[in-house]
Amino acid sequence: MSKVKRYHLLIKGIVQGVGFRPFVYNLARSLNLKGWVLNSSEGVHIEIEGSDSLLEIFISKLVSEKPPRAEIDSIEKEMLPPVNFSGFTIRESEQKEGAFILISPDIATCEDCRSELFNSEDRRHRYPFINCTNCGPRFTIIEDIPYDRPKTTMKKFQMCPLCLQEYDDPGNRRFHAQPNACHTCGPQLMLVIPNSALELWKLDFNFKPINNLSPEILSDYRIESTPHKSFLLKEEALKAAEALIRKGGIIAIKGLGGFHIACDASNEEAVKTLRQRKRRPSKPFAVMFKNLEHAREYVFLTNFEKDLLESPSAPIVLAKKIFPDRLAESVSPKLREHGVMLSSTPLHHLLLNDISLPLIMTSGNLSEEPIVKDNQEAFERLSDIVDAFLIHNRDIYSRYDDSVIKQVNIYRMTLRRARSYAPYPIRFPFGSSPQLLACGPELKCTFCLTREQYAFVSQHLGDLEDELTYRNYSETIELYKKLFKIDPEVYICDLHPDYLSTHYAFENHREKELLRVQHHHAHIASVLGEHGEKGPVIGFSFDGTGYGTDGTVWGGEVLISTTSDFERYAHLLQVPLPGGESAIKKPYRMAISVLKTIAGNNLPQIPLLDRIPLNELEIIKRMIETGSNSPLTSSMGRLFDAAAAISGIGEEATYEAELAIEFEAAADDNEKDSYHFELIDESPVKIDFRPVFSEMIKDVLDGKRASSISMKFHRAISEVILQIAQKIRKEVGIDTVAISGGVWQNSILTRLACDLLEKNEFKLLLHKELPPNDGCISYGQAVIAGTKFS
Ligand code: ZN
Ligand code: ZN
Ligand code: FE
Disulfide: which of 50, 521, 702, 716 matches 33 by Cβ 3.0-4.6 Å? Predict the structure, then answer.
């Protein structure tokens, strides 16, 4: 028999809130090993005693058979003299000063819970908050670490004897499942309907809504006042909500990270009404389906997309429409894809199974404001939009929007990183760097805190343009600092003096170091960091806007870049942007600027000009001539705006980059022709778009369709990208290309450019987990600072 040994193991990674301790307990018992396991603020500690050979099996199975959502980053092993443990136990959690652990993000309802949910014999049959150690809310309910029930918003629910038994039984799937609950002891649903909506929708209930709630219930649901409202509880609440949706009503539903607004996605009238009330004329809405089979009746899904939809993160996935007329036309007008997701909470499962309709599930907010999370807040901010509120009494601690992902070629492209992904750390290849706080950009803002080899990039926080978003931003920074025990020694911000994130850095860094980073450099550094590379690379940093080192508006930049430095090798020819940022909503302004650059005062008589009021046309022309409120820009995003407007796609954008997105959607794959950029050999090289637009204007005057103009434009950009990359390779011998910036959310451009570059033997670096849009900027800022300070 081999010798008895004792090991102390410290396991780091995502090992809390994912059923790791019961797994360790069961594994140890099955091998008849003795000792204990405990959660601490550093990770999971195990002491394990037994024969050499069994200990080896134990350690290898720790890795190979770990629970599905666990991620092991490291195992530290120390040998100790045996002490003759009498059994294997799970010990009380302990907290150490300064230590930190990774916590699992929220997880979609698992299969075991799903089958219990629909099993009429089960004691949790139709319980909308069923969960276990493999699924359920996590980050959205955590107030502090270690992750234990008293430090979550579940603390107010006292477990009933049956739940407690499961919670205490190491052999049970709900052992130490912090949000464990049931019909008897857990959170409950409530439907709140304004009396006016009750009359309007003529819901023929065979049950009576309550008109007065006791002060206890009101405070339990954190509702302040309830004039002119009626209430239904539990199953009746759900049934009434379903009835309302079937009739075409619009409902606010409290989800994991905030409120959704839901309505029948096959009911054009309902969707149109929602658009009017939400003041959102055409930005696409996401649609939730009850399962994959149902989704497949509406969209085509690749294996990759199917796996993503069914993954425990359950993001929104962009998928190609088939049978477009099966959903209401105004769900995602003019686009080729639907944003699709599957039920991810038990409440969704019940709702979607009962009504068997595809449902719009859009964030409960107005445009880029933070998503609504509290019941009272919902009444105040959403009552003009919805007919009723399906709420519950479990508080949401952190706001999380849904994450959005799409597939481009073989690449997984994140468009919004939030629920179920953040704040799982991104690798940070500068372990010896001091702790950093990178404050991020302005639009699609995230911040990034680093500690050791981890970068904690926040969830998408929206556009940092108003009080509400700024408050949410500051509060979320404080929460992350607390949870991950980070006290930043360096603050990093953008060069733009007016961004609120820049203000935040200036106001909060105090005596700590402050570093300012150029926006497009941050884009490229962000890609490099994700790949653990330092450069130099040829970086195509294409987006709408970013503050240049010369004070002009950059956005069509080719940088020879490392993680510490960059050279602006080439950029788009600059033109005046009449009205500055306001031109983003009026792409025709940029079109006029481009036309004027080419044709001077004799603007070609293309149809676009007839749709612009004559006096405005004159004002814009004058602005361009005098340069008043017309900063120079080299923005690729704006060039797309101009091309879209000139081609006849439209004039104004009701959401960010609307025309450019519709221009892409219109592109005709069968068009093999292309326009042609020219390179002006100066330092930096100028990418001259005038030949492109001269040819384009000819096409427009010849009556060519926008679909082929679009394709020719996309091809032209991908060709000039290759041309510049080849030029740089020849001059300085770099053959790695990194791409980042909001323009790269364009699937066609990404596909064409990547194909061309790969065919010509360039090595390509694209973002892996972060979006190419400004959601990646904070991490890029951190990478640049990490290089400098480590
Ligand atoms: Zn479960
Ligand atoms: Zn219970
Ligand atoms: Fe950007």
Answer: 50
For residue 534, what are the contacts with CB-CB under 8 A and spacing of at least 6?
528, 562, 563, 564, 787
Are the CB atoms for 14 and 104 separated by under 8 Å? yes
Could you report how far apart the first and last alpha carbons of the chain are, in Å? 50
Ligand whose nearest atom lies closest to the CA of 154: 2
Token pair, residue 555, equals 């956005």
Residues 540-597: tens digit of each pLDDT:
999 999 999 999 999 999 999 999 999 999 999 999 999 988 888 999 999 999 999 9
| Residue among 713, 728, 642, 635 nearest 677 (CA) | 713
DSSP 8-state class, residue 326 = G
Going from the Cα of 116 to the center of ligand 1, the distance in angstroms, rounded, reads 9
User: Which residue's entry shows tokens 């996605």?
Assistant: 265
> For residue 249, what are the contacts with CB-CB under 8 A and spacing of at least 6?
197, 201, 263, 270, 387, 388
Condensed to tens digits (0 to 9), the pLDDT of residues 430-452 reads 988 999 999 999 999 999 999 98
257 contacts 397 by C-beta, under 8 angstroms: no
For the record, the structure tokens of 554 come out as 């950059």
Q: How far is the CA of 87 from the centre of ligand 1 (A)?
A: 29
Backbone angles phi, psi at 636, to 5 degrees: -70, -35
Going by the DSSP 8-state scheme, the letter that residue 132 receives in this structure is: B
Residues paired with residue 190 on neighbouring β-strands, in sequence order: 233, 391
Q: Which amino acid is at 352?
A: L
Pairwise CA distance, residues 664 & 544, whole Å: 16
The crossing angle, in degrees rounded to 10, of helices 658-666 and 747-759 is: 60
How far does the centroid of ligand 2 lie from the alpha carbon of residue 165, in Å? Answer: 9
Is the pTM for the entire model greater than 0.90?
Answer: yes
Q: Nearest-CA neighbor of 553 among 634, 626, 630, 440?
A: 634
**Alpha-carbon 429 to chain mean position:** 23
Helical (H) or strand (E) element with 597: helix 587-599
Look-up: residue for tokens 């990359």? 725
Q: How many other C-beta atoms lie within 10 A of the C-beta of residue 96?
A: 11
- 422 and 457 Cβ atoms separated by less than 8 Å: yes
Question: What spacing in Å lies between the alpha carbon of 738 and ligand 3's midpoint?
Answer: 14
**Mean predicted confidence (pLDDT) in 656-664:** 95
Kind of pairing, strands 490-494 and 513-517?
parallel
DSSP state of 146: S
Calculate how far, in angstroms, residue 722's C-alpha sits from the geometric centre of ligand 1.
49
